[in-house]
Model the fold of this input.
Amino acid sequence: MSSRPTGVTIIAILNIISGIIMLIGGLGLAAISSILPTMTTIDPNASGQLAMAGLLGGAGIAVGGILIILGIISFIVAWGLLKGKGWAWSVTIILSVISIIIGVISLVAGNFGSIVNIIIAGIIIYYLYRPHVKAFFGKNAKALV
Done:
């Protein structure tokens, strides 16, 4: 295995940073959502309020749990990138393609800030297909020469 390219280290660091953000966001959302139903002022004449507060709290806990899982996965992928694991290369390519698709959908919906996401994901895909980077991950470096 060749030495780790600098760009791979940068991509791994970005994964670690996003993992931290997802963990903190997921934990915060789950914590706030768990106490949300108890913080609402409930009108005894409006029976749907309690159910809605409980539903929103449950949805927030579920989304928070998903963010926590994604944060942990982000750390695992970062480790794989740093160690030159082929599966981490594949996962990063797949997630970058998904990011581009979501970015395009978001762009069509009017979020012009998603252009930055699309560009970053495109750069990551381009970089990961460079021969020396593919060689680091044990991929066939001659596939896209």
Q: What stands out?
A: The first helix runs from residue 6 to 39. The CA atoms of residues 17 and 88 lie 16 Å apart. Residues 1-83 form one domain. The chain has two domains: 1-83, 86-145.
